Amino acid sequence: MHSLRHFVFNLLGNGLPLLIALVAVPAIAHYGGVERLGELGIVLGMVGYLGFLDFGLSRVVTRRFALAVQDDNLDDELTELRGFLWWWALPGLLAITLLLIGAQWVVAPYLPEKLSSAEMQRCWIWIVLCIPLTMITNWLRGALEGMQRFARVNLIRTFFGAWNFAAPALTVLILPTLDAMIASIALGRLLSCFVHAWACMQVDRAILVGHAPRRKSSLSLYFREGGWMTVSNLIAPLINYADRFIMAALFTASAVAWYVTSQEMMMRALMIPLALSGALFPNFSKASDPSAYKNFFAEYLRSIRIISAIMLPLCAFAAFLSYDALRLWMGENFAQNGHRVVEIIAIGIFMNSTGFLGLAWLQGTGR
To answer: Would you call 332 exposed, middle or buried from its count of C-beta atoms within 10 A (0-12, 13-18, 19+)?
Structure first.
């Protein structure tokens, strides 16, 4: 029952912002131009890919907190986390941020012309600022999820998920430039980070405040497990986002917009397995106890059947209605050029939906 409630919270947190997206995306295309919509998709893909710099630590934090709550060892785990955050993680993020700022001048001469426009270059500082803010937010969210505060997490996720669509749509009405839209998203990341920190303080001040010992063991403790998660975090976003950069190099900005918009909205269907895997991950973390392994493995198999039963008809339905849905939402031109993207990607979405749960099981059980 708890898992079902957490699943519903996660689903609402990921799903409600889509209602804003249905209005925001056409507004960006109309007032900013289809080309800028395509460029926005490329920039967001870049931010999404650089998410591998999380080094898997958000899930490590969730897993360790869930085990600590179960073993009544939370105080020791909080002390370990504070030492890791203040002495290792934050200085590391500062170094990464400075390296990414300097990377602009190294990489820029080799980028395709469409990726090196003046607006795209001005976006770089905002892209870089999004990275550490997102990483810190993910770690704080991981702590809240490990303590199973899903209602609180998803209330915040709903608001700032809506911000990611609404802010650039409102910005483009005033200043129709790509860098202004990205700056509005970066502001949302900053506010989200502060709100997650405040939520952690409300749940348990010891998450952030208290004795923070500087231990090298903390570094190896978190990175040993997080390093393996980074392998999947590095490869999976590459599969998801590399096509955008290839298209940006080969085709027009309008073609990128048709493709990215169709792909992005279809990929939103993955919020269903993402919500379920997020709700079950703390439970899977407890499966390391031999006496509980059998029950949790049965729960994992049941979740695979449930997701398959939901996603198969949903993906088939989306592929069947792709042309009419895109025509009603974005217009005839978008429908003609984007509906095949939806049809093809629907197949991959169904296959990938069960993969979310398999990954959650492997990572939750420490493999």
So the answer is: exposed
Give dist(CA 282, CA 148) in Å, integer: 8
Of residues 212, 286, 229, the one with CA closest to residue 58: 229
Instruction: Give, rounded to a whole angstrom, the gap between the first and last alpha carbons of the chain.
Output: 26
Structure tokens that stand for 104 in this block: 């602009």
pTM of the predicted protein model = 0.78
CB 89 within 8 A of CB 277: no
Residue 195 pLDDT grade (very low, low, confident, very high; cuts 50, 70, 90) = very high
**Burial 346-362, CB ≥16 within 10 A → b, else e:** bebbbebbbebbebbbe
Sign of CA dihedral 305, 311, 317, 320: negative
Q: How far is CA 99 from the centre of its chain?
A: 22
Question: How is residue 128 written in tokens?
Answer: 């870089």
123-127 mean pLDDT: 87
What is the C-alpha separation between 208 and 50, in angstroms, rounded? 25
Please name the amino acid found at residue 179: D
Cα–Cα distance between 170 and 33 in angstroms, integer?
A: 14
How many CA atoms lie less than 13 Å away from 18 in the CB half-sphere? 16
Q: How far apart are CA 187 and CA 168, in angstroms?
A: 11
How far apart CA 355 and CA 273 sit, in angstroms, is 9
- Residue 31's φ and ψ, nearest 5 degrees, are -90, -30
Decide if 84 contacts 64 (C-beta within 8 A).
no
